[in-house]
User: What shape does this take?
Amino acid sequence: MISPFHGICRPPVLALLVLLGTGMARPLVGGAPVQWPPLGEVAHPEHLSGKMIWADLVTPDLAVAERFYGGMFGWKFETIQPGAKNYVLASMEGRQIGCLLQRPMAAGEQHQSAWLAFFSVQDVDAARSNAIKNGAKALWGPVTFPGHGRQAVLADPEGAVFGMLASSTGDPSDSLAAPGEWIWSSLLAQDPAQDAAFYQKLFDYDVFPLPSESTAEHLILASDDSARASVNAMPGGSLPRHPHWLNFIRVTDTMAATAKAVAIGGRVLVQPHVDRHGGRTAVIADPAGAPIGLMEWTDNATQVEQK
Amino acid sequence: MNMNSSVRMLRILPWKPIGLTFLLLAGLCGCLYPGVGVDGAVVVGSGGGYDGNYFEPGGFQHGGWGSDYRVGPSRGGERGQERAGRPYRSAPAARRMPSIPSRGRAPR
Assistant: This one.
């Protein structure tokens, strides 16, 4: 007897069913488009090459992450696509911080939740090609998200993962981060000089060596006459480490912020200590283990920019 | 319509042209709507190369630094000594090391 589904099992039909059941056809049934608020603050979009302008957190429990980051920094969360429950936009007084994305982590999986920082470029495709030519590994993209921009994710020659984003609405202006906003990025590298050279080729950074009492090299990467990040030789010792970017949120009191982090489910990875800018920094982990830096910054000379 | 006639109908349909047409349409749709929709948004920055996730590899240590390990910005202080044979291009010696942006934010 011939099965009534005999014809359906022919290869072209099977291929179509596979497409409908997997990613390729999903955009058609994915619901309303994502509503991205503008990232830039100015009427005339500008790109500040090498400035960290965006971050994504992939976490196994979105509700826990929202409670933690909302409690720590006062971030607000909103859904940017009607009906989507596994990611939210985080903002601080109307300014975008990044996205929190929920992805399950299977029991026993050897992975750790982490923040992924995106740096501004004008042309993602050109910057990506340049990065690959200089030893980076392409991990994802480039993909354009209407209303947000075009972005790609790469691993630098040492394996530290970073993103690049050409925002379609320009970048946030170069002003002092408010408490609760990203203020600084540090790359912990095996060979700071080589990694600085790589990022200089990518973002045209000015590289400044920092005074160091040891043989370990510490460098500052700057663009548009603003310091953007530090590149640091990884701390010594026998602990297993891998090169990575660590991003800092401005806080008004690092001691109080670390105490609060512990009280609401986080952990302290580096105790508060005075850093080279004169304020205290610390490193904490959120309840899922994602590391994040805390940094005090006092600047009495700050004047409100006159338009 | 009985079972046999259904089977006959399925068998006489031109499956190859139908299948190819659907494949073409599905391919076009994928090109026309890149990244829009639930899955498209989920992979925003999440590193699709990691099977749609960006989790760091486990088993590594973060933190645990001593208090003399510093990663913060300078306040625009003095530069360190230039080291010979570095692969990067140092900013001109006359350039003062910049600090982080310190302007106040313009009112919206």
About this structure: Chain A touches chain B through 131 residues (CB under 8 Å). Chain A has a mean pLDDT of 84. The two ends of chain A are 82 Å apart (CA to CA).
